[in-house]
Amino acid sequence: MARSSNLPEPTASAAPVRALGARRLLLALAVVLALYAVDLACAATVPASAHAFAVNVAVPFDLMVCVPAAFYLLVVRRRGLTPLAVLPVVWAGYLAASQLAAPGLLSPLAVSAAAGSAGTFSLLPPLFAASLYALLWLVAAARASVLNPLLVDDETLTVRWAAFVCEDVPLRLVTGVGAAAPDVPKRERLDLGVMGAPPCWIELSEPLEVRTLAGTRRPVRAINVSPDNAAAFKRLVGARLR
Length: 242
Hints:
Number of strands: 7
Keywords: Membrane, Transmembrane, Transmembrane helix
Transmembrane segments: 53-74, 81-101, 121-140
Number of helices: 7
């Protein structure tokens, strides 16, 4: 009679999987380096009549567009990395292309454009600073959205949007939570939803005066929010309404 065993079934080791991933990464990097080598070889062997065009147009396009695109497809996308990982490859392509650049038609054109727009270039530093400031605001708002979640207790539903809006909605005024926009005038709605997130409308039995994103106050009868788990949020609010 065969006897059963309580020993666990053998499992495959993760080491071969990691080794395969490392080999694929090395192969992808080798392909990217091969593309660099092809561009360098072309720049060295191109006829003299086309040398200026090759090193000033064709090679920079390959190193700053085609090679980063290949790196994205072979490395970034396959390994689930952020698309920002392509930027160092673009910068490396720019540095390599700048070392190969030769005097040609583009250089006089660039000098002429700089001379004709001398006053405009003085605006670049403040515009860059303003853009950086706006980017920091966007990052701070996204971080505040994570640190300021929706709160539900036995009496109040606290609605928040980043660091700009925080309103306490009495649960006695809440009639339900749904995905469809309620049948109320648009002015009586307050949309605090995140772009791309499914809507989650909180419907009120009577108007509630709240502060809008512009800082003004007006009465609303529906508020749209974007909880991480809309189904769990609906169940939680529904349980408090019973």
